[in-house]
Design brief:
Blueprint lengths: L5 E4 L3 H12 L4 E4 L7 H6 L1 H18 L15 H23 L5 E3 L3 E5 L2 E4 L4 E3 L2 E4 L3 E3 L15 H5 L7 E5 L3 H13 L2 E5 L11 H13 L3 E3 L2 E9 L2 E8 L2 E7 L1 E4 L3 E3 L6 H4 L22 E3 L10 H15 L14 E4 L4 E6 L2 H7 L4 E6 L4 H5 L6 E6 L6 E8 L2 H4 L4 H5 L4 H5 L13 H16 L2
Parallel strand pairs: 1-2, 1-7, 2-3, 7-17, 9-10, 9-15, 10-11
Antiparallel strand pairs: 4-5, 5-6, 8-16, 12-13, 13-14, 18-19, 19-22, 20-21, 21-22
Helix pairs in contact: 1-9, 3-4, 3-6
Length: 466
């Protein structure tokens, strides 16, 4: 067999897009993927199925609030068989499209698992050996099972199980307070499950600000989710009747029983079977592969991208990483590394939480001065008439010219609204630049003009009174 120029381990977002670019650069390329189903986490068990279900739950929630809008809707409830069928149909279409692209013949698709024998050679689960001058690791992540007494022995659900439900669980305890935990806890509550969420950190969504998390927490409590933050899990026991979770909260021992347990305590890099040591590739204790700004590992011809390397588990970042790795390996001139000052993140709870750029916590840690202004949704015309009163929009700018550094939005359609800042941030625009643009009334989007105007006014006063 003719040797490959570029070998990719994993056909998810990083691997597939790396292969696409590699072929365009004239590299003989192969993807090795032994997963039962092709498509990667996002399509099969992540972004797309979860957002499909969340949107259906949003519609149900609005229907159940009919009287708020003067509507007579006698009843609205979830038909989980129909919800499950619609989700399966939509995801099967996405997956089929990706499978066709993977099997298009532009590159070789090898259905097997791989492990390193040396820095240039991998052995496949079918016994074959492959080598290449450049290799990309894009094997994704898997559910983490922390050492909580009784957790491993319990018949817990993972996000895969929740996304594949075709019935309404009577009760569920959700362990964890990250994005997956929060999104699916709210989904379960809205379809009719009694939900208890137990989070170890002081607030939900610990990678986000406490202020934004507090808004989401209040919405959860208002919808009937029993919420415990700042806890310490002590023991999980299972019997024929269900699962019992013991934990400490505010110095007191709390016990909750449930029909089902959902382990949403996080994910970890799926690198344990690769034998990275044989290739000399360094990884952190949790298996996360260490890379430089070009996605190179400490072995320069071996790259890594996506969830297995981090630092974030976000699809568009994984795509950027895979494409960057290929271009660097191919010697493409004038390429640029990923600009982390443009990092974009969205949590699809209701209210949604979205951020972009450099935020207060990071700027404070770096000692970087900034101006900040915010405005609440409950004082904005369009959100009030939509009964979407949770949250705020916050803008962060540098204090000299008003260049936008970042933004944080928690509220209705925050995941859409945050993109109002994507272009301007990339173009290094100022608050004055954005205020020159027209903003239609009444729209949700115009809410961002209020913090922009506040910062612009502060800057104008400083200039007139130096």
């Amino acid at each position: 067999m003719k040797p490959y120029d570029f070998l990719i381990l994993g056909g998810g977002s990083a691997g597939f897009n790396a292969a696409r670019v590699a072929v365009s650069l004239g590299l003989r390329t192969a993807i090795v993927d032994g997963a039962r189903d092709l498509g990667g986490l996002c399509i099969l068990r992540g972004c797309m199925p979860s957002k499909t279900l969340l949107y259906m739950a949003d519609i149900l929630h609005l229907a159940q609030k009919g009287t708020t809008f003067g509507l007579k809707i006698p009843s609205a409830s979830a038909d989980m068989k129909a919800i499950h069928a619609r989700k399966k149909k939509i995801i099967s279409e996405f997956a089929a499209y990706r499978e066709q692209a993977l099997a298009s013949g532009q590159f070789d698709l090898i259905r097997a698992h791989a492990r390193f024998l040396d820095p240039h050679t991998v052995e496949l689960s079918d016994g074959r050996r492959l080598s290449a001058p450049h290799i990309l690791i894009g094997t994704g992540s898997k559910v983490s099972v922390p050492p909580v007494p009784g957790l491993a022995e319990s018949k817990f659900w993972t996000s895969d199980d929740v996304l594949d439900l075709d019935f309404i669980p009577k009760s569920v305890i959700v362990l964890g307070g990250g994005i997956v935990a929060c999104e699916l806890a709210q989904f379960l509550s809205r379809i009719g499950s009694r939900v208890t969420l137990v989070q170890r950190s002081a607030h939900l969504l610990r990678d986000h600000s406490a202020a934004a998390a507090t808004v989401v927490q209040q919405a959860f409590v208002d919808e009937g989710i029993e919420l415990f933050t700042g806890t310490k899990l002590e023991r999980i026991t299972t019997d024929r009747r269900g699962v019992t979770v013991d934990f400490l909260h505010d110095g007191k021992k709390i016990t909750r029983r449930t029909a089902h347990l959902f382990n949403a305590l996080g994910r970890e890099p799926n690198t344990g079977t690769l034998d990275l040591a044989a290739a000399g590739v360094r990884a952190r204790p949790n298996g996360q592969i260490i890379t430089n700004r070009w996605q190179q590992t400490n072995v320069p011809h071996i790259y890594a991208g996506g969830d297995c390397s981090g630092p974030v588990e976000i699809v568009h970042v994984a795509i950027q990483q895979g494409e960057l790795a290929v271009r660097h390996a191919a010697g493409v001139k004038k390429i640029k590394s990923i600009d982390w000052s443009l990092l974009l993140n969205v949590v699809f709870t209701d209210p949604q939480l979205a951020t972009i750029g450099r935020l207060e916590r990071e700027l404070d840690a770096a000692g970087t001065p900034y101006l900040v202004a915010s405005y609440p949704f409950n004082d904005h015309g369009k959100s009030i008439l939509m009964d979407a009163n949770y949250g705020y929009v916050k803008v962060i700018a540098e204090p000299e010219r008003g260049r936008i550094l970042g933004a944080e939005i928690v509220g209705k359609d925050a995941g859409e609204l945050i993109h109002l800042f994507s272009g301007p941030l990339a173009m290094k625009a100022t608050v004055f630049d954005l205020l020159r643009a027209p903003w239609y009334h009444p729209t949700l989007a115009e809410i961002v003009t209020y913090p922009l105007e506040e910062i612009a006014e502060t800057l104008s006063k400083r200039r007139s009174n130096p």
